[in-house]
User: Fold this.
Amino acid sequence: MAEFQFQTDGDGRRYVAWIEGGTKTRQPGLSFQPRTTFPRMYETGGERCPVKIFNMYRNHRPLDQRDSGPFYLAVIDAPSKSVWYKRSRMGKNTLGSIVQSIVAGTKLHGTKRFSNHSVRKTNVNTLQSAGFSRDQIRTVTGHRRVESLDLYSREND
Assistant:
């Protein structure tokens, strides 16, 4: 489960912090190691501001899951005006289908295979190209170990 918090950094920039609890791959228990830093999504202003879009998404989640719970929720087929999402998680196959339908309407269609992790891989490679250290990239992506970045590296293609 995760918790979402709207916060402001020391420079006055607003962001959403994603604070992760235990997940399928990060089980709580004796060996659980909480993240030392939490992923942040910063406000950019304008119509496509990710904080603004996240807040719209948040406002259509079930009331008891507005500030916590799984990030991707299953969609209600015939939603009410205020709640568009179920209390259950959206499955990985549904997420994969959404990614494929997004790519189908672009010039990227047919150029290579896109998956649920394509955005994460693009993010890692963009940060590498910009000269960020592997430790800085790990902090942004939320990986626990720097070695995990190897799976997302362009050299691995």
